[in-house]
Amino acid sequence: MKKEIKQCRNMNNRLGRESNAELLRIICIFIILLHHFCVHALYPEVLPLDIIDKGWDSHLLLFIHAFLYIGVNCFVLISGWYGIKPKWRSFVNLYLIYAFYNLLHPFLDIARGFIQGDGFMLPYSLHDIVMHTIFPFGYGFLHLWFMDCYLGLFLMAPMLNIAIKNMNKAQYEYVLLLLSIANVYFGDFWSRGLINSYGFSLANFIYLYIIGGYLHKYITIEIINKNRWRWFSIYCVYGLLWGICSMLSAYHIKVPHWNAFAYNNLFLLLTAIFFFLFMMSWHFKNRFVNYIAASMLGVYMLNAGVVKYEFISPYSHKFTPITQLTLWIGISVGFFIVAVGVDQIRIFLTKPIWLIYNRYIENILSKISEKFNCAKSE
After folding, report:
1. Do the Cβ atoms of 97 and 347 come closer than 8 Å?
2. Which of 9, 165, 300, 347 is deepest in the core (most CB within 10 A)?
3. Conformation bin of residue 40: beta by default, left when phi > 0, alpha when psi is -120 to 50
4. Around 79, how many Cα atoms within 13 Å sit in the side-chain half-sphere?
5. CA–CA separation, 203 and 59 (whole Å)
6. Which residue has the higher pLDDT, 195 or 247?
């Protein structure tokens, strides 16, 4: 019996942590790709809800966007569920990812210029390339609102974790109520940009992080598992409601206070929460899923910050609706596979940096943290 238990533990160690959240990360990034290739290239009329004179495929893509537009919200809910642990290693990893894709950006511009017949022309000075790579956050080539907000959430995580840990249920629900009023009522219904600018903000990330922490703290695994298909049904209901309201708005039928593509839109928030609960009700471990999930931030950066969409835009509405939809899915799948491959190259190229970090830098940073903790305790 002891031998079997030991074998089971060894298998669990090899497979790592549960893969349900890792699979959700992959789904989140893939549907973000679908959204980007849709609204920035092949179906630009979807985002402004300008589909009246378009084909049925444009109508379909607008309607199903409730199920495609939950990626960012679910991604942050995962962080709230597990809790961000702001260690030096995590920050260095985030820095290396950002620095790599900042460095990749000008070289892809060179390749793009060569393909367009401009020759090997460097669009940036060597000084700019070096400085943007060394200081990728804020000063870099990439200006990604998601990464800026995520970095802010990473830095605020210690305070948020203390609050989550020490609040009782009544206090927690009171805080959620106040944050809901601020982020949804004032932020979405009345579009108060200073409070929450359509959910593209640190305020919304904090809100989602607090929600994820509440779900983890007070919704038991038994309840989550037992209600699996209820979560999925509610997810579908709120998605349908979002689709109906968005279609009405597209046909100039006024829906009061309707901001379809705001991340703090109430229906989108609820859709993301219930899809998150549905995914967390599945329990399995898969080494391949965990391996691929580690590249998801890299896939996002390559898509949102490095690669341009002008090479796809000329194909907008060039084909029949079925062919156009097939092209949209095919490009998204193909890009996802290539982007995972690029990020695996990043992981390989940064291994020497990790060796230096593990051998020399980690001890220094650990001593700094220890001194800080000692001073804090005194």
Report:
1. no
2. 300
3. alpha
4. 28
5. 32
6. 247
Query: What is the per-residue pLDDT for 125?
Result: 75
pLDDT at 3 over 60: no
> Which residue has 């650990």 as its token pair?
366
Alpha carbon distances (Å) from 72 to 75, 264, 276, 330, 353? 5, 11, 12, 22, 30
**∠ Cα 355 344 313 (to 5°):** 140
